[in-house]
Write a structure and sequence with these properties.
Elements: E1 6-12, E2 32-33, E3 36-37, H1 38-47, E4 54-59, H2 64-69, E5 81-82, H3 87-98, E6 105-110, H4 118-128, E7 133-139, E8 145-146, E9 155-156, E10 163-165, E11 169-172, H5 173-183, H6 193-199, E12 204-208, H7 219-233, E13 235-250, E14 253-256, E15 259-262, E16 265-267, H8 275-287, H9 293-296, H10 310-322, E17 326-335, H11 345-356, E18 363-368, H12 374-377, E19 381-393
Parallel strand pairs: 1-4, 1-6, 4-5, 7-12, 17-18
Antiparallel strand pairs: 2-3, 6-11, 7-10, 7-11, 8-9, 13-16, 13-19, 14-15, 17-19
Helix pairs in contact: 3-5, 5-6, 8-10
InterPro entries: IspD, IspD/F, IspD/TarI, MECDP_synthase, MECDP_synthase_CS, MECDP_synthase_sf, Nucleotide-diphossugar_trans
Family: In the N-terminal section; belongs to the IspD/TarI cytidylyltransferase family. IspD subfamily.
EC number: 2.7.7.60, 4.6.1.12
Length: about 400
């Protein structure tokens, strides 16, 4: 007989600091992989399974705004609960919230494993048909050495008896809830829920894991995750270019790449006349076949008069995300005799990166003069050129 209900706890209460070693301060569960945040991917993987009744995220108390920004809505998705100081405490908080619903079974999943598959979920649930608990595992293929001091090898382990544990780990709800409540009174920190189940005397079965069910822990794991997506979905790279020119008018500053730079004039245009962001927006739109900036923001529309060009750039970035794509890199060249650009380049790269939600390492801004030739040489205006490299799912 099938279970009455199956609940899922998504453990997302950590700060994700190890994954931020590349300079990105965003907690790993809220960083994007191919345009979609890790936590959103993890939750979606369970909501896509029709046997799941409830999905409960357990988040850090300081991350409420980040979670709300995901914009997730589903009748089976419960309001998030705040976690505790440890993973074990966070899981217990989730179990307490689920207790009044009396689910038959519960799956406990790390938020940082965004590639859970329907087949993996089914294997865990099947394991629960015969045992108190079930967890996906992979055989250890490396030779494992034990050391007592971290310097000298003491012994070699028998890898035939070693397996790497993954999540989701599944249990009969009442049994694991009771085990967690008792474990909370023990002066010992358990590494995962299966260890708590083992300590409580429950029989936990191993089921076949999934090589792609990786845990995002370190910065390089994001690169690996994107490679997995590309292999699964079949991505292709598209290139777009943009060009724009604006004349000078009376004023005291120019906007370039989202940065206001003092000058003896301003750039003339319907919006803030940020010639660099206009070219860059066109480059991104071109890469995904979405026309140009005038198609989306016609100059005849007065609502865009004086508008910040970051609005246009952000819109182009959102269109990339809607196609489940990602921006690989952006390159902007500004051609002007004045003002001098070099000292503003770091701020420009940061402004573009923040607007699009990407790493500043993916953005390049360069400046050159026109060697006093033509209208640029006469300081009558500024030209900007841009290129964008975008990966999107293959459609043919």
């Amino acid at each position: 007989m099938p279970p009455k209900s199956i609940a899922v706890i998504i453990v997302a209460a950590g700060k994700g600091e190890r994954a931020g070693a590349d300079g990105n301060a965003e907690p790993k569960q809220y960083r994007a992989i191919a345009g979609t945040p890790v936590l959103a991917r993890t939750i979606a993987g369970f909501l896509a399974h029709d046997r799941i009744t409830y999905v409960l995220p357990v988040i850090h108390a300081d991350h409420a705004d980040r979670y709300d920004a995901l914009g997730l809505e589903n009748a089976r998705l419960m309001q998030p609960v705040h976690g505790g100081a440890t993973r074990q405490a966070s899981v217990l908080e989730g179990l307490k919230i689920l207790a009044p619903l009396r689910p038959d079974r519960v799956l406990i999943q790390d938020a940082a494993r965004p590639f859970v598959s329907p087949d993996l979920i089914e294997r865990v649930l099947a394991g629960l048909d015969r045992h108190d608990g079930a967890l996906p595992t992979l055989p250890v293929t490396d030779t494992i050495k034990r050391s007592l001091d971290g310097e000298l090898v003491a012994t070699t382990e028998d890898r035939r008896q070693l397996f790497a544990a993954q999540t989701p780990q599944g249990f009969r709800f009442g049994q694991i809830f009771s085990a967690h409540m008792r474990a909370g009174n023990v002066r010992r920190e358990f590494t995962d829920d299966a260890e708590i189940a083992e300590w409580a005397g429950l029989r936990v079965a191993m089921v076949e894991g999934d090589r792609n069910n990786i845990k995002i822990t370190h910065p390089e794991d994001f690169i690996r995750a994107e490679r997995i997506l590309m292999a699964d979905q079949g991505f292709e790279t598209r290139i777009g270019t943009g060009y724009d020119v604006h004349p000078f008018a009376a004023g005291d500053a120019v906007w370039l790449c989202g940065v206001k730079i003092p000058h003896t004039a301003k750039l003339q245009g319907h919006s803030d006349a940020d010639v660099a962001l206009h070219a860059l927006t066109d480059a991104i739109l071109g890469a995904i076949g979405e026309g140009d900036i005038g198609t989306h923001f016609p100059p005849s529309d007065m609502q865009w008069k004086g508008a910040a060009s970051t609005v246009f750039l952000r819109h182009a970035g959102e269109l990339v995300k809607e196609r489940r794509g990602r921006i690989v890199n952006l390159d902007v060249t500004i051609v002007a005799e004045a003002p001098r650009i070099a000292s503003h380049v770091p701020a420009m790269c940061a402004a573009i990166a923040e607007t699009l939600g990407i790493s500043a390492e993916r953005v390049a801004v360069k400046a050159t003069t026109n060697e006093k030739l033509g209208f640029i040489g006469r300081e009558e205006g500024i030209v900007s050129m841009a290129s964008a490299s975008v990966e999107v799912p293959r459609t043919d």
